[in-house]
Amino acid sequence: MIASISPNSIQAQLESLSSLDKLRDFFVTLNYPCADETLLSASVAGALDQPRIIAKSGDFKIIYTRLERLSRTLERDIISKLLPDHPYALFVFSDPTYTAWHLVNVKLSYREQDAHLRRIFRRITVSPEERLRTASERLAMIDLSRLPSSEQDSALAIQDLHDKAFDVEAVTQEFFRAYRRHFEGAEQQICGLNGDQRRTFTQRLFNRLMFILFLERKGFLKLPDQQGRDYLRALWDRHKAEDRDDFYTARLKPLFAAGLNTPNEVNIVGINSKGAVQLLIGNVPYLNGGLFEEHADEQSQALRVPDSAFVGSNGNVFQDLFYRYNFTVDESTPFDVEVAVDPEMLGKIFEELVTGRHESGSYYTPKTVSSFMCRAALRSYLQRACQESDAALDAFIHEGDTSMLRTPESVLDALRSVRICDPACGSGAYLLGMMQELLRLRRILFDKHQIDSISVYNRKLQIIQSNLYGVDSDEFAVNIARLRLWLSLAVEYTGDAPPPLPNLDYKIEIGDSLTAPAPILPPNGNLHFRERLIEDFNAAKAAFLVAHGNEKIAAREKTDRARQDIRDWLRTNVEIPEDAFDWAVEFAEVFKEEGFDIVIANPPYIRHELIATKGALRSTFGVRFTGSADLYVYFYFRALELLKPNGTLCFISSNKWLRAAYGEKLRAELAQNVQIQHLIDFGDLPVFGATAYPMIFTARKAPPAPAHAFRALPVRDLEVLDRLPAALRAQGFDQPQASLSKEGWTLAEPGILALLEKLRQGGTPLGDYVKGAIYRGVVTGYNEAFVIDRATRDRLIAEDPKSEEVIKPLLRGRDIKRWQINFAEKYLIFTRRGIKIDEYPAIERHLLQYKARLVPDGKGGRKVGSYMWYEIQNTIAYYAEFEKPKIVWGNLATKPQFALDTQRFYVNSPAKILVAHPDDLPYLVGILNSNVSHCLIAHMAAERQDGFVEYMSIYVAQVPIPNAPQALRALIGAVARRLTELGGRGSEVTDLEAQLNDLVYQAYGLSASESGLIEAYVNGKAAEA
């Protein structure tokens, strides 16, 4: 048995890692046999020595290269040369002096070994400046002793061990759990503030500490005689050496106010001349931007933050949280990841901890998805803005290849001038994603063509100043978004202390994106006057962006005056809701140029019942308003208003609007006014770690040509997330936009679309065929009172035989199966409108015990309505139909689940009934349970989790009923009757259903190839379920 090694022992070895021999020893400790084999005969640019295998087990190798300097780009180039011959390996790089090390795991993107290979480079950094606890714990996981002895020579098993060890998501989740524990522990210790104030104060405090933790990695903060870069730890240690209990008051408040929020030239109490404050907080930069400005709660005399907020029953926040994990100042990209806590964690903390998971409708978009969306939106924009071919733009955006660009200078000009907005920016995921993409593309142009020759810091500053805009109704989310942009900028500065951060108050703003009027600048009055107003406002905002110190106050006042001038000109006699974000005023310079080039977002998914601003939305969107529409629908409408002509919309949202009735107005607007570029539907895949039925929608704001087609991709495998561009190319298909109907949008390949249309033309819609006799089940409003079991029924009838008049046998959706009814001895107290309850004393006594829940008051009882407390909620004017022979079905199913009912059952909602002539019912149930019906409804109905679809009346009513010859109708009816007799069970069923489907194919006049398409679709759905 090979002995395993502890993380503490590994950390000791990592701390002393200073030579190639010690590297070999390290892997021997992890039970990898030594090796020594030089690779690559030709010299490698940037490498001081040839790559060499220093350890191996079976076909898995540890490959080491010493570099002139550690560089991600250089490492990727070397790995790309080595990987084809050494697919199972860990790659190790060091600087010339063996001081700093990168250990790189390469995870191959799923199912791409043969084409469009995407490699995810995942890196652990080891150096004297790094906190090595995370590295030690992760590298302990690649110890070969963790594998059974039979697998210790298996390259696949060892690679899997490494892939798990380098999983940054595991590090992220572990950090978040620890963060939550320490956050909530600190919150409980803070005194003098109420609950909401305490939560807000704690959020701000931890945000500031996290910001400092990232910033200290650059060495920007330093106490006198401090060793290393762990500024906060040193600050805490010096405070505790004084045996005091006021760390926040004595050290942090001066740091925040006198240090990080005070211009250097102010020189408060000798901060720059070794005065008292400098001894307390050391040398720290002035950061500006507003992060460290003092708030009212911080000025409260009652506020007390004891040291137990930092060190208490949950442990030491510095030792057990902030300095236990490795922090990296670089936000990882989807395919180059540091196994450490990066600034994106600030956004995840907001989404997961601050808002409470998803209660605000927020779902954190995976980085691979947001990166894909940013690139797709920029590609669409550059198609319009530059005279470049699609192939050239694809190579540039996805591969970094500029060789096909005709005019790189015009591409750079377009990237510099693009205006991008996220109207639901949350904690800034898309703003940061767009910054990364714009920076990457501009850096490629500089590397390949030596244009745009400015520092990375100045490129990022330009991007913030010129390209990015964001709005969110949550003030704390906006603060996080600003913080992440500040941090992204500050870490690029290479001097001793970064310049003051830009003020983002007029770039990332707080407000309700939906409730203000449409952002239109009317050309009324003097055009020159309008232009001057907007130019003055834009100039004032630009000056405020870089103002600091005393000039910041004056710049803000000037900006606010200029904004008020525009508001006075534009909004005469117009009422704007208090929290509304008035786009035309706040971003007047954008709408002077007709709008944004790109609007990108993951709009909040808030169900219509929870929308608090319905009145304002009705007023703002007029005829486009639908009372049952979820909130994200209005973000689509607003995005179209925000875009200039030919601008690009790129959203990830729920897919329910594609087929739901409440999406009809949105479908109509988009079908007429945008050119859809691609639509990626993830169905019920948990892209966000929860089932939100997401889809990506990218379109250009321009009317579509009659023959316009878009790229469609239904996704049924989460592994596709890592390779969306390749999947869209290889597995997607072109679908005519004209094929999308207002009744519902279906993604289907041309052959299926043509077949569906033939089926629709081949019969009479079921709703017309039965003259509208499709009804939903009974809505009681409180089933606990009205739905009873057999014993209760018998007791009520025994107490009063008249009770039997209003007690009906009941089917629930779960009781209705394909070809059969499973009566569960449930009964409905059917006290319909107008009943004289005093004639049914036993029923009245039974209901009386539930009266508080039955009163229609909209509070503790049922919804408000004109019915008595003892009556069922809905009118049910069609109640007599329940007493007739009929077809019944439930709401959710993976395939048709229709059954004949000849026993006069009632059903409760959301189950449905269909009434027709008794002689027609067997024929109709045969059609409805056939593969044709399955295929038709699946392409119309709203999808739910695990392959279920909603068999709502609006979809079932569209099934075309073929006008087949009487003899064929009789045959279909006879097979359906036999299946009903068998209850869909037994050895005959498979053959009978095959016979039924063949007869139905004949009724629709389908060819063998057409019926084959339906069979393939249905069998594929069965496999998915």
Automatic annotation (TrEMBL):
Catalytic class of the enzyme: transferase
Pfam family, one: Eco57I
PROSITE patterns: N6_MTASE
Domain Type II methyltransferase M.TaqI-like as annotated: residue spans: 467-688
EC number: 2.1.1.72
Domain of life of the source: Bacteria
Biological processes per GO annotation: DNA restriction-modification system; methylation
Gene3D superfamilies registered for this protein in UniProt: Vaccinia Virus protein VP39
Listed PANTHER family: DNA METHYLTRANSFERASE A, DNA METHYLTRANSFERASE YEEA-RELATED
Protein name, UniProt field: site-specific DNA-methyltransferase (adenine-specific)
